[in-house]
Protein 1
Amino acid sequence: MKSLEELAAIREKMASRLALRENAGEIRIVVGMATCGISAGARPVLNTFVEEVANQGLTGKAVVTQTGCIGICQFEPVVEVFEPGKEKVTYVKMNPEKARKVVEQHIKNGNPVAEYTIGSNQ
Amino acid sequence: MKELSLNILDLAQNSLTAGSTWVMIDLEETEDTLRITLKDNGCGMSEEMVRNVTDPFCTTRKTRKVGLGIPFFQLAAEQTGGSLTLSSIPASVSPDSHGTVISGLFYKNHLDFTPLGDVVSTLCTLIQGAGDVDIIFSHKLPGGEISLDTREIKEVLGGIPLCEPEVLVWIRDNLTEQYDEVGQNH
């Protein structure tokens, strides 16, 4: 059973790491989680971003957050990526597979995945 | 919505928007019924809002003039022969004790019953986005009870935020193991 002792061990491990993380969340990955997003499949997209950012060791670089309706329901699930000094990138009709590619190419290596952006889907 | 657990996630977002400091999610199952109840201590709704909120053209969102969250949930319940109940006390009327309770009764053996689906994913997603809002979850099944209370988790974690991926993995594994113990694979 996943015990509270294990949780306490996580605390010990995290405490030292959080202290080291100074510019946490330089990149913001925002997933639309209103009724439109959820019914279109935003839940697995969000969870994939959270897992992949952690698995790729990017927690010091990017933070995953949720928002309400972005206003383009026909394109849900919608994900916006905000990076300081750069234009916002809006990804549309996302799924877990696309999310993994966005983390790999865009978040990790700085190259937005053009084919998934709203500009390529209109 | 393909799963009732997605309706739960959607309704819980309303509780977060309402400024709640906690949200209780209760699932109660018998052999042929499922009751889903969400209770919060948010700003509540006026009597008029409670009357209108099942109307798709009533919404708090600012980007569209339609709101389908509660209508979807109501439809999912009623199409199984079940029902929706909603009650709310607005903060303007009762500053010390306010909030909303929404509850749906579902008949599980009805042809049009939507499966409950991945409750564990819903909880992880909800906790990831809930910030300081506490989530108190309980699922009573004929074979046992699954429960999770973020207030207890926070106590162990000290200041470590619940949205840290390692913590979310622990929550996922903890819930999955609880479901395994009562013989439900979620």
Protein 2
Amino acid sequence: MGVTDSLKYYWNVKVVGEPFLQWQRWQAERHPKTPSRWRTDILSPPLRIGAKTKELISRHYLEGRYANGHRPVAWVTSGGPVEILQALGFYVLYPENHGALCGVRKAVVEISGEAENAGYSTDICSYARTDIGSMLSGKTPVGRLPKPDLLLACTNICQTVLHWYRVLAKHFKVPLILIDTPFVYSEASDHALEYVKKQLENSIPISEQVAGQTLDYRRLKEIIQLSKDAAELWLEIIGRGRHHPAPISVFDQFIHMAPIVEMRGKKETVDFYAALLKELDENIDKGIGAVRNERKRLLWDNLPIWYRLRYFAEYLAEHGISVVASTYTNAWGELAPLMNKEKPLESMAKTYTYPILNQGTKYKLDTMKRMVEEFELDGVILHSDRSCKPYSIGQIDQRNKLIQEYGIPALLLEADHDDPRAYAEEQVASRLASFVEMLDN
Amino acid sequence: MKIAALGIDVGSTTVKMAGVNASGEMIWNHLEQVAPRVEKQVDSFLNKLKEEINSLAGIPLVATGYGRNLVHQAVKNVTEITCHAKGVYHQLGHGGTLVDIGGQDSKVIVIGAQGQVVDFAMNDKCAAGTGRFLENSAARMQVSIDEMGSVALSATEEVTISSTCTVFAESEIISMVAHGVAVEPILMGLHRSLIKRVVAMVRSVGLVPPLLLSGGVVKNPAIRKVIEEETKEQVFLPEHPQLMGAYGAALLALKVKQK
Amino acid sequence: MNMTIPPRKEVITDIKNHGGLVAAVLPIHYSRALLRAFSIYPVEVWGPPKVDVSLGGAHLQAYICSIVHNGLSFLKMGGLNIADLILIPHTCDSLQGLTSVLIDLIQPEQVIIPLYLPRGQREEDVAFLVDEFRSLYTRFSDLTGKHPTSKDLLTAIKREEMSDLLLTKLYKNRQQVGLSNIDFYRLVRSREYLPAEHFSTLAEKTLQAATEPRPGIPIILSGILPEPMEVLTMIDKMSGLIVADDLACCGRRLYAPGTSPDPFRRMAERIVYAPPDPTRGNSIEERLKYLTEMAQNSGAQGVIFYEVKFCEPELFDLPSLRAGLKEQGLASIIIEVDINNSLPRQVATRIGAFLEMLDS
């Protein structure tokens, strides 16, 4: 690591960047009059915490921008076991999260076009295409992404990441740590958990070598606890959706979930979610719902459609519909109870083997049914995501079973989480309209 | 007229035929809309030629294009990739990157310094990268094929067509028309959308200048302009852009004869 | 050459008549020996092509590949009714999804048995696969009431190793064997359903009958499988000769004989150290090296990447592989197909133009 790079990092991040972002947040908090881009006649004004979310995300990418040469950098899959890397002082970047950001900022067509021009098929995941396009061209809406010194791919969300990270490893010529998590058809076998634990163990010396320091187990325990605390808070936040009207919609969750994905294991992430929870509780006391006139409540299944968040939020709110829960945001909270700092590797092995995406279609159907009951929902929107096969396969039968066996109205919508070219405006609009009419009958 | 060899290109919309003399110059050609019975059409083609030059005996014929297997008179079948490369190279005298936008497919061919095919890419599974995409969409807006290029160029602004699927794009267009967007900017957006797909193919094989254009679509001025904008390269056209496949086939036939 | 390969139906009837059980096995890697030790005969299901896809389409989205669509359609048509169990290796997200949908939501009559394949070539990957095979052993014991000994297992393993050695030899002598592309692949792919000993006999006969080398523009075929098989006839007509392949159903399964005296370890090592395969997590560098050496050894001038549409494990590596091959002076082309459709004429044009390009 170089002195010049470290000086640059301190100057740009600590001296200039952080105070500026803080000031920006104060401004936003003191003068919340800056009009929301989203319609406030049907939706409640945005949560106050939004200013803090913006500060955290901006700072995260700012740190990344100056990280090379100052701190070791790892690129990690969203379901990756990040605690060991955090304990070793890595700056951790989540390409999927960056992909989502590109989706929200409507930059996917241009950036993934760079990958497509280089021969990457439009049939591969749009996150991967966006990331590879960004890697090849340097294009990103966040200024600059740091180059990785280490890659970590965990197959607990899909096999796609394995192939995607092979491409990154070849391009950047850096070590790739693979954490392979056998798929859980009903229950994980002992040898599967042992296998994951062994891989976690073996990842330590590689990470240590790249980081140039040895792992401090006390620090690892602290980080595991912080990860667990944040995840538990996140679960509570999601749980607040049980109130009528729900104080937070999934569209808010999609935005405020960034820290639980990319800043797990940090004290400020725990503080952030504690503050968010507090704000929700205040809103519950005041009877403020995310949707002003909440008449119907829905569940969202699968990834968000990042480039149409506002459209869905507003269209549904216009009809008094609040989407209050999702299997997707739930995934970052439901495993919290499995974390145990006294058995760091063992509990990590279990935690990272059991995400919803690594479990069978029955588990997902049961989760949907349970959430519909617990949150007292009127229906389910299943986003059939062209770019996420593991999440989407099974949805046709799941939808049928929801309707036929449980009497829960359900709609399957064909789209893609990041690529607007795979989204048929008119078709989606007419399906959504008929579903809304159906809910009222 | 001393025709030494013949080439026929049976495409998806037109049938083209070219005759060359012993030194490989094109001295005769003919173009017709493709008929449902291709075999019969080829027969009448050849009969017509026979009337003009008395006898076809000893004149070899090479067939190319999607219907090449239907030409039973041919001594050889060669793909249109090889024929286009051959024809364009012979006429222009140098290699480069050839873009051919046809009704059923679009192709990009990198032609080497000796006229050989170095690499190629084809878009054929998806209509959004072909001339058909433009034609269908223009027809929807009641603009004729011959006019669509100039109408597009008269636009003062341009809309973005984001869908890459023809079916989606069509509904996108319908909705734009329904929202009162004028025809010109939509047409310009359509050209851009098509060309972007073609340019992606050019990039995938790697552009070796100069950039050459052939196929029926070169009559459309907007195509040429948008390609130049998107690639930032000047575009060169052969003298008979639609006949390059047939011409290349005739040149190959000449080679058969010389063997 | 006059060679009769017994058809699939006949082989299955024969197995059943002799009291054997039939396992329908989906792509790609598993241990034939483990099944055989329990007198279960593997019959592989790669698609198959040209079935009524509306049956699978009732459960799977359009962006799932045709191998998975057709596999499910075939099952729904009753095509797998003869099977006593269905073994599905965990090859990719789509086969994972299919397995889960079958177990949880469709629930066919046959037992569905998943097999997880590790994504690396590390010691822990071998250890995991050893345990995975041990738990399959228990599963098969429960099913059949049989308890094959280590010796029984080793006998079964050696029988498969012999068959794989002969298969490898067929590939090494590809040109001398003198078969057309279609005949060669009919023979090689009969390994997908013939018991090892029968395949060995066929392979030996073919090797003995080998006469004069077959001419043709030498190429490599890479991808999952050569379906629809018409593509092979088409390449024959265009004077192309597939001198080596990197196909999941063929060349990627030329398993080397094992060395371990422990049967489970031996079965696991044979798969983990098999030729590079993206679905088992091999790096792009390993694949490129393997392909380049394959071209050098076989004299191939170009590679056709013959891909099933939507196959992510294949698609990610293609740009890097093609660029790497180009540096070595090897041309390549990508052909994408849906195994359920007959070959469009455009495919003929592409392959034809590619061969013309190599030949010039």
